[in-house]
UniProtKB/TrEMBL annotation:
Its main location: mitochondrion. Pfam families: Porin_3. It comes from Ceratodon purpureus (Fire moss). Keywords: Ion transport, Membrane, Mitochondrion, Mitochondrion outer membrane, Porin, Transmembrane, Transmembrane beta strand, Transport. Belongs to the eukaryotic mitochondrial porin family. The lineage of its organism: Eukaryota, Viridiplantae, Streptophyta, Embryophyta, Bryophyta. It comes from the Eukaryota. Gene3D superfamilies: Porin (2.40.160.10). It is found in: Mitochondrion outer membrane. One of its GO terms (cellular component) is mitochondrial outer membrane. This is Uncharacterized protein.
């Protein structure tokens, strides 16, 4: 006689951290639509260090960055230099530091003679994702707390950021969301600072085709903005994306990956309400280590 005992219910998937609840929609609508030229090349250096060099050119403005990342078991160390404000920053991240699910990240940066830093503590529980962060300069420290309750599929939470000296609320956000295999919906509200509402939605209408939207309401100013977007996977190497907004701008993106290490992108945007304005064209190339 066989075993009649089942394997039990699947393990509960905890919610994501509140700061990332709308990332799937943001990636669809905004990611990859570069307005200039971008090149990023990564390679493996000594001791397994990942070295990355990137350059971005947009509107006659050039920003370069170099970073070195070393992962040692549950520890991750990253050192970055950027030509933007001549900034040098370092971050050390520790996974499962004191208990399973806890991540602690300590960082510091220097730019144009000033120094700031941050300590970020995150904890992931089967029914909640929590984080607390202290950051800023010595003269103006800030504190942020966030919590997201529920599961990966249904969640509600909030985030609040406050100036530690003046106790003035700098940012606030509460929201809820839902996701299943092919649909995500998230509503975020800022009731105290910007007094705004953001609604995100994505859905796979076919296995290779996804559509989405982002609507923003500024309640006090009675303004609204709408963006819709979509993507379609042509084959294992090629993806096309498009987006439209309510100010008349249409953009398209073609991404081609000949292999898992190389991704090329060609983006173009035009404003149909101002055809005298030159179209914006962007090129990107990303090379990852094998």
């Amino acid at each position: 006689m066989g075993d009649t005992c089942g394997a039990g219910p699947p393990p509960r998937i905890p919610p994501s951290h509140f700061q990332t609840v709308a990332n799937s929609a943001r990636d669809l609508i905004y990611r990859g639509f570069v307005g200039g030229q971008m090149l990023s090349v990564s390679c493996l250096g000594p001791f397994g260090t990942r070295l990355t060099s990137s350059a971005t050119i947009a509107h006659d403005f050039t920003v370069g960055a170099m970073s070195a990342t070393l992962v040692e078991g549950p520890r991750k160390h990253e050192l970055t230099f950027s030509t933007l404000n001549n900034q040098i920053s370092g971050t050390a991240t520790f996974l499962n530091l004191w208990t399973p699910g806890m991540t602690v990240a300590v960082s510091t940066s220097m730019k144009e003679g000033s120094t700031d830093g941050s300590v970020n503590v995150q904890y992931l529980h089967p029914m909640a994702a929590m984080s607390a962060k202290v950051f800023g300069t010595k003269d103006r420290p800030e504190a942020e707390v966030a919590m997201n309750l529920g599961s990966l599929n249904t969640f509600a939470g909030g985030r609040f950021c406050m100036d530690a000296r003046t106790r003035h609320l700098d940012a606030s956000q509460i929201g809820c969301g839902y996701r299943n295999g092919d649909t995500t919906a998230t509503v975020l509200c800022d009731p105290f600072v910007d007094k705004s509402v953001d609604a995100y939605f994505t859905r796979y209408i076919q296995p290779q085709t996804q559509v989405g939207a982002h609507v923003t309401f500024l309640l006090e100013r009675k303004l609204k903005s709408v963006r819709i977007a979509g993507s379609h996977v042509l084959d294992s190497q090629t993806t096309v994306k498009w987006k439209l907004d309510d100010v008349g701008t249409a953009a398209g993106l073609l991404q081609f990956s000949p292999n898992s290490q190389v991704t090329c992108g060609l983006a173009a945007a035009v404003n149909f309400r101002n055809l005298r304005q030159a179209p914006s064209v962007g090129l990107s190339l990303q090379v990852l280590p094998s």
